[in-house]
Each structure stands twice: as structure tokens, then as C-alpha cells.
Amino acid sequence: MAIMKCPSSVNLSQDFSALGGICQTIRTYACRPVNRANPSPIFFTHSSLRISRCSASVLSVTMEEEKEQAFDAGKAALLVKELRKSFSSGKTKSYEWRAAQLQSISKMIDEREKEIIQALQLDLSKPELEAFVSEISMTKSSCQKALKDLKHWMAPEKVSTSITTYPSSAEIVSEPFGVVLIISTWNYPFLLSLDPVIGAIAAGNAIVLKPSEIAPATSSLLSRLLSEYVDRSTIRVVEGAVPETSALLDQKWDKIFYTGSTRVGYIVMAAAAKHLTPVVLELGGKCPAIIDSNINLEVAARRILAGKWACNNGQACIAIDYIVTTRSFAPKLVAALQLTLEEFFGKNPLESQDICRIVNLYHFKRLAKLLDEDGTSDKIVLGGQRDENKLRIAPTILLDVPEDSLIMQEEIFGPLLPILTVDNIEDSFHMINSKPKPLAAYLFSDNDGLQKQFVQNISAGGMLINDTVLHLTVPTLPFGGVGESGMGAYHGKFSFDAFSHKKGVLYRSFKGDALTRYPPYTPEKQRLLKALISFNIIGIILAILGWSKK
Amino acid sequence: MAGAAREDGKPIDSKAALSLVAELRGAFASGTTRSYQWRESQLRGLLRMTDDHEQDIAAALRSDLGKPELESILYEVAMLRNSCKLALKELHHWMMPEKVKTSLTTFPSSAEIVSEPLGVVLIISAWNYPYLLSLDPVVGAIAAGNAVVLKPSEIAPATSALLAKLLGEYMDNSSIRVVEGAVAETTALLEQKWDKIFYTGNGKVGRIVMAAAAKHLTPVVLELGGKSPVVVDSGVNLQIACRRIIVGKWGCNNGQACISPDYIITTKDLAPKLVDVFKSELETFYGKNPLESKDLSRIVNSNHFTRLTKLLDEDKVSNKVVYGGERDPTKLQIAPTILLDVPRDSLIMNEEIFGPLLPILTVDKLEESYHIINSGSKPLAAYIFTNDKKVKEHFVKNVSAGGLVVNDTTIHLAVHTLPFGGVGESGMGAYHGKFSFDAFSHKKAVLYRSFMGDAAIRYPPYTDGKLRLMKALLGGSILGILRAIFGRS
Q1: Residues of B numbered 95-134 whose beta carbons fall under 8 angstroms of chain A's beta carbons: which are they?
Q2: Are strands A255-259 and A235-237 parallel, antiparallel or unpaired?
Q3: How far apart are CA A324 and CA A314, in angstroms?
Q4: Can you tell me the distance from the alpha carbon of A356 to that of A414, in angstroms, rounded to the nearest whole number?
Q5: For residue A42, what pLDDT is reported?
């Protein structure tokens, strides 16, 4: 926050870390023709823009250096080889190694809280409380949960065995996959980078983390902090954008964990297929919220706001994407939202310190396009103000946008909230089910029957009744998508499981060796076996008698 | 042989596949498959079908693979029946939402994990256990409430045709279908969007399946194979060890099974004794002329016969045969064959054998075997025979494989409480018992809240007081909480 308000207080090292990010971003976008139309380093606030302008010469030198040291497929192959060697030394398998790394991450979060908050401020203008609650404390509690339960998670699970294999015992042993790649994203760049890393460490893997180049300050902070706090021989950060990610994806990994867009999800899975690498894909989708009329509207409105604008200004994979409510209730809902918005963000939300900015100009333009579409722009009932220079868009509510509008066809991922109306609240189910499965679905209703129907009929990664986004904080619930919103899940023990192979182990002794199992398969053996299999007691007796007669 | 069973003469193309999926999607959307009653009736149908047609199934397996009846009954019919029975017994329990604890952060609330069907799933199965490996995943898919398309293997045409016929008769055809065919048909099916693909087969096709799945973000289970090793320690009952290896190798479809022992590692000292016991036990089991034995499956087709003879005839390998080696191309039979000390760089040590050849590698010390195993791709199964507790522990800790068995082979497959599936090159995902149900279910997290207990601290504007209180709350510091509350008031 300090950085934003008085640029003079920015110290040199921070300038350089921001600069590093700029170089990478420019390099990335320079190789994407689409973005050539936007030649300015568009992804930063005024303070960082200022840095880049006044340091143009330094910038070009840094770019040259970076070009020489480009992280290519060769470097990626070397990195993986090195980590594979560390992994096969067995060190990551010990409880001690895992606990030590987790403890270090916990310590890192405590000691470097300020820097983390600053980086999030730089990347997203994330309000301190939001940064603290949704990134820092979530990561920390994830770490602590893993530390607390690690022994228990690691213990082989004894299971019962069947009569076929009597006498025997069996257990399921969790073993690390090996060397895993985690590609994370920019909206919760700290949490979504480290939360999967915690699971991968708990499960005993060697790790490469590729944070998002779209949140450059956090990316470089993660790179710096992890090399300081965790075992570098087994845990590494590779910074970069498309070329670096492609170089990484060319390698053979034992698991790839990707958080991001559906579009890149396809690419990651196709790359993984070449090496038969299992994947977890944490994607997004249009998360609906159904608002019934028989509710405590005041509380509901607050919770809707908490799950939209107070969630990184809607730039969250489980933020509410659109609302469905009844025609008659819509005006009341809009009024309540309006009141609460003013309570939260004041009369001029563009000036509010409690709301994130849009991450970069590309996304700002994308959102503006959704808003400006003919047939949509006249549906704004609240908000709509924007400031391109500050990359800010006010909380905006649209009523009754057409279903075939752009805003209803793609994931919004920003502060725009369309409200669709139906005659009967049940009609919303069909509307939701006609779209790809979202990562989350929300219902506000006091009607038990409707709640039941909702849970039974709507498919989504997860669902929450009478609140938004909080299911993310419950470690006993698997967090992950289905269909277009992804595959695989994590959080709590599910994170450990996502990075573990569940090895079935059966123990037998040399006792109890039944001849029936072995050839030659005489008709008597067949008779006995059939009787045994079907638990036909008379058959067994007959077969044994028949057998003994011989 | 391939495609011979397609008697309707209409191979399925992309368009036909598309309309098939659309039809099944319609059936799925109607909700039929979600009910307990539907799932139960379909599982009962499978069970009845297996009971009614035991002889037809055994006959088809004899035709496709020369499979001995006892093997067919034991490994295909009985296993499938067990799967169905278990699913029927546990279905209520499996379908029940799982209540889980919630955290303080969300108080007051309750939470559960709801298992819901993924939708319309594709199951592509293999030829070696064509009945079991087709229907065992179908049991899981039905139990989980999905609409299903099964593509049996064209390399076992009699079973493929039988499955098409029987499922047509016994199952609800609005939601469960069989598509017969080979590469062209499979390709047409793979172009479609499925909600899950379950493939049993080899790594080469596994890659194709996963690449096709990636285009639609479809999750996959890949049940592949690999070179499953057997480590034999000294000091064990060699007769029992050999019998259990034999039954997992030649007694399992003549080695044409994904979890058959692929090769043995033992110490130099023990190897000659081991070979002697193998010789006498094999003779007891299959007689002096195993090519005449009725208790061995044949090689599935001439392609595989040629592939296997090539492995056997390689220069540096052919002189390592210590037992067997006889073959009959007209009958597609190869006798149980043991090879001693084949070079590590030979063909036979570099691809999955999937047949009646069993190389024995020797090491000075048993520990070296871990290095040999771990230097290759991860196998679907790994076995060890030992009485030494330390060796057992070391093996379980250091050898990575889909599953492990100590002192026996292959029978972990019959333990439904163990997940069955590979890792690395041997596949991803697992099934059997409840794991089958889980493989075809989405685990939907559901959190219930009421309108009570709404804390203002969650919401903007974020005052310094709120920040202090939040930090204290999340840090669990009582003193901090008190201070923050005082500070605010």
C-alpha cells in the first residue's frame, strides 16, 4: 500500500525486481503478434511504468542478458535431470525432509508477510486485508494442516483382504510420484502457487514451480523466497511466460498441476499425454448464483459482494459469474446490492482502496469489450464507470442481458455481474445445465426442497448454499472442477493424495497353498472351484467327495 | 481376424459416433441412470447375463484364445460376478453423500461430498481378458450412474460379438451400448466428447487416447502394462514360489496378462536351483509335451506369435533358453520357455513380453535387483518372494509399481479393497471395488450455510481495526483478539 501511495518510498531492490518482471512480460508479449498493438508495458501501475520509462537503457541491457540466458528446452531438460537425481537419492521421501520444508514455508510466510503483501499490491492493487485473509493466512493454514496431519497421511492404510487370498494382509502405501511441475496463475499468485507446492512436498515429490508472469512481482518474490527458504536441490522456481512454459511442458514429469484457463488446460493435457503424465487441471467457468426470494436479503447481498468484488474484484475462478433470479425479485435484489456496494466501497468505487484493480490492460480491454457489446451496454443498471489509466472498473450490474451475448458466453473474470431472470426459480437449473460445468455453483434459498433439488440436479466442481467462495476454506472438502472446469482436486488431504501414487500391497505367507489353483485342471478341480466360488456348500462337499474318490 | 465379427456390415464413422453420443446424452440428461433402481437393475442384468451364458462365454474365450475353461471361469466369469455382487451389496453405501467436518472459518455450517455420475463414458477394453476387462469397468460406470459405450477389442472377435449380443439383450440400451470395431471405429469414437474415457491396453495407444481426451478436457483412466518383475530371495520354499510364479505366468492366459511376471531376478547362487524346480513343476502342471496341454491358452494371433518368436530368436538371446522353446505356428502355440541370463540390452528385456517367455536375470546381491527394476519404466505390478522382513520392507519402500505382492503373484487383483492401476508408464487412475465407483464419479463438494452468524469483519471497508482483528483471529492469539476488539470499540 505504501508503494502505491508514495512512489518515492520505493526502494531500489524493489524497482529491480519489478523491472525483471517487466522484461519478462515484454519479452513474452513481443513474441505474440496479437499484443503488438499495445507496445507500452501495459501491465503495471503508474509507479512501475515510471520505473520502466526512466530505466530504458537498463531495460534493454537486461533484455539482452535474458535473451542469452533464455530458459529453453535444453535447460529445462537439465533441470529435470538434476531434480530426478535428487529424487532418486530418496531424500524427499523422508518425513524429516517433508516436515522441514513445510516448516520453512510457514516461517517464510511469517517473516516475509510485508513483502508478500507489497508484491500483491504491485501486481493487483490487492487490499491488505484481502491479501492477508485469502492468500497469506490460507497458505499458512494449509501448511499447518499438512504439518499436523503429515504422519497420519504418510502411514500406510491397512485394508481387509478377501477369502480368495486367505491367509494374507494388505495395505495401501502412498508414495511420491517423483518430479512434478506446478504451473500457477496470477489472480491469487501467492496462494495458488504455494498451496499445490505444499501438497507436493507433503507427498514427498521434487518440484518445479512456474508462477505466472502476469503477476511479475509475486513471481520474482516467490523465486527469491523459495530459493532462500526451501531445499534448492529438490524445489525450484522457473520464472517466465509462454516460451519457458513450453520448454517445461516438453519434459517428462510425473505429475503436472495446472491452475489457469481452459484454453491453456487443453495445451497442458496434450503435452502431458506425450509422456503419459497424469494431470490436475484447476480451471474456471461461469459460476452461477441462484437467488431465491425467501431469503435474508441483507446477508445474501453481503455474501454476494464478498464472493464477487471482494474476491480480487471478480478475478477469481470461483467468483460469481452471473446471477439467476426470478423476474419479480430482481428489482429488490438490485436495490439491496446497490445499497451494500455503497456501504462497502463508497459512492465512488473507482477511488476505493478496498477493491483490486484489473490485472492488466489486456484484461481491461477484454472486459470493456464485454460491457460495450450492442445489446449488453444498455443493460447496465449499476456502475459501468471505468478508468483505463488506473485499470479500474467499478462494480457493475447488468440486468437481463441476452443469453447469446459475449458476456454470457465466456467466463467474465472481472467486476461485471449480469443478472438473468426467470419466471420460476426452478427454470434456472436448465439454464445452468445447458452451459459447461462450472467450478462452483451457489444457491441462496431457505427452501429445503429447492436446496435438495439444486444439489441433485446441478453439476459443478463444488457448491455452496447460502454463501459464496467459503467452501474453498474447508480442507475436508475436495476442491476441483469437473468437465470444462477441470479434473482432479486438492486441499487438505486431497492435496497429499493428488501428488501420491496409491500403491496396493498384498502380503502372503507360504502357508495355505491350495492345489486347486494349479494345473492340470482336472474336472474335479473345476467342480470344486466352481462350488467354492459360488459358496455352494453341497457342491463343495460333493466336489471334495468326488475328488477323494479318485 | 479383426473386424470379422461386424455382421451388421455398418462400421461406425464419426457421424454415427456423434449421433450415438447425442442419443446417450439425451438419455443421461433424462436422469434415468442416476436412480438407485436403474443402477441396481443393470447390475442385476449383468449378473444374470453372466450366469445364464457361462458356457457361451467360456466358448467365446476358447475360440479367441484357446483359454482353458477353468481359467475362463475363475478369472473372467467368477471375477466379474464378484464385482457385480460387491457393487450390488455396497451400492447404497457408495452412493451416500459423505458427511465431513467443517472448519471454524465457516461456522456455522455443514458439509458433505456428493458422488455424482460424470455423464457419458467410453470404455475401450483389451483382448487378453476380453470378458472381464470389458465388463469390470462397466460395473463401475453403471454403479456410478453413467451412460456407457463399450468398445471391446476386435482382437478377441468372438467375445466382442458375444458382448454386443448379450448387452443388447440384458441391458438398458438407451444408456448402455456396445460398439464393435477396430482402429477406424475407435478413432471415430475418440473424436467425440466424453465425460470419462477408461482405456485398457498398451502405452502406445494410451498416449493416443489421452491426446484425444485432451481435446475435450476429458479425464482418463489408463490401465496399461509394463515389465512386471519377480524378485526371488534365497531361503524361501522354492516349490511354492515356483508354483505361484507359474500360475501367474503361464496359468494367466499363457503370460498374456498385464500383471503376469515378465522377468525374474534372483541371485547367481539360487538361479540353477530355481530353474530345476521350475522344470519339474512345469512338467507336473503341463506334462512332457506342453504344446499338447489343454491347460494353456494359445497365442492370440499370428502377429503376436511372430513378435514373440522374434524376441526368442534374437542372436544373443536364442542360446539362453534353458527350458522350453518349442512352438507350433499352425496352432499358435509356444511352450513355457525359461531363459537364463539374457543380456539387459536384448529386445526381450526392453519390451513387455506378454507371452510365455520368462527370462531370469541374476545378480550377486539381491539389493542390486532394486536398481535394475527402478532403472526401467514403472511396471503395473512387482513381486517378491522372501522370508526376510527387512527385505520385504525395503522392497515395499523402494520399488515403485502399480501394485505389489509379497510371496505370491497376480492375486492382488482379486482383493477389491486395493486400488488396481498403474503409475508412470503403466498407467494412471485405478479401479476395483469402491475405486471403480470413484473412478466414474465426480466428488462434488457441498457446503451448507444458514443466514445466521454473519460477521461484519469479512466485508469492506477494510478498516485497520478489522485487519487487526482478522490477523488475531486467524493467528489464534487470544490476547490479540481481545486487543483488537478493544482497539475497535
Answers
A1: 100-103, 105-106, 109, 111, 113-114, 116, 118-119
A2: unpaired
A3: 17
A4: 10
A5: 36
Query: Using CA atoms, how far apart are residues A132 and A113, in angstroms rounded to an integer?
Result: 8
Instruction: Tell me which residue in A310, A479, A507 faces B460 most closely, judged by beta carbons.
Output: A310
CB contact under 8 A, A305 and B118: no
What is the pLDDT of chain A when averaged over all its residues?
86
**Is residue A15 predicted with pLDDT exceeding 70?**
no
Q: How do strand A179-183 and strand A206-210 relate by DSSP bridges?
A: parallel
**Chain B residues 402-431 with a CB less than 8 Å from chain A:** 402-408, 411-412, 414-420, 423-425, 427-430
Q: What is the pLDDT of residues A503-513, one digit of tens each?
A: 999 999 887 77
The residue annotated as part of the active site, out of B258, B281, B352, B425, is B258
| B198/B144 Cα distance (integer angstroms) | 14
**Chain A closest CA to B269's CA: distance in Å?**
21
- Residues of A catalogued as catalytic: 282, 317
The 10s digit of each residue's pLDDT in B259-314 is 999 999 999 999 999 999 999 999 999 999 999 999 999 999 999 999 999 999 99
HSE-up (13 A, CA, CB side) for residue B78: 18
Residue B460 has pLDDT above 90, yes or no: no
Tell the residue number behind the cell numbers 520368462, with chain if given.
B358
Question: Cα–Cα–Cα angle for B57, B82, B228, nearest 5°?
Answer: 85
Q: What is the pTM of this model?
A: 0.91
Q: Is B90 designated active site?
A: no
Q: Compute CA distances A67 → A27, A70, A217, A218, A251, whole Å.
A: 9, 5, 20, 22, 21
B181 touches chain A (CB under 8 A): no
Binned at pLDDT 50, 70 and 90, residue B455 comes out as confident
Mutate to test the interface with B, among A505, A525, A529 (most CBs of B within 10 A): A505
B109 vs A281, more confident: A281
A443 strand-pairing partners? A290, A465
When pLDDT is cut at 50, 70 and 90, the band that residue A304 belongs to is very high
- With cut-offs at 50, 70 and 90, classify the pLDDT of residue A18: very low
Q: How far apart are CA A315 and CA A364, in angstroms?
A: 11
Give strand pairing partners of A158: A171
Do B114 and A455 lie within an 8 Å CB cutoff?
yes
% of chain B residues with pLDDT over 90: 86
Query: Using the beta-carbon criterion (under 8 Å), do A473 and B103 form an inter-chain contact?
Result: yes
Nearest residue in A to B105, CA atom = A473
Best probe of the B interface among A84, A93, A120, A133, by most B CBs < 10 A, is A133
**pLDDT number for residue A542:** 60
Strands B109-117 and B441-449, bridge-based pairing: antiparallel
pLDDT band at A534 (very low <50, low <70, confident <90, very high): low
**With left for phi above 0 and alpha for psi between -120 and 50, is residue B332 left, alpha or beta?**
left
Contact by Cβ (8 Å): A102, A198: yes
In tens, the pLDDT along A137-162 reads 999 999 999 999 999 999 999 999 87
Cβ-based neighbours of A74, under 8 Å, separated by 6 or more: none
| Cis status, amide bond into A519, omega within 30 of 0 | no
Percent of chain A scoring above 70 in pLDDT: 83
Ramachandran region, residue A369 (left: φ > 0; alpha: ψ -120 to 50; beta: rest): alpha
> Which residue in A416, A440, A480 sits closest to A290, CA to CA?
A440
Please give the torsion angle defined by the CA atoms of residues B153, B158, B163 and B166, in that order, rounded to the nearest 10 degrees: 170
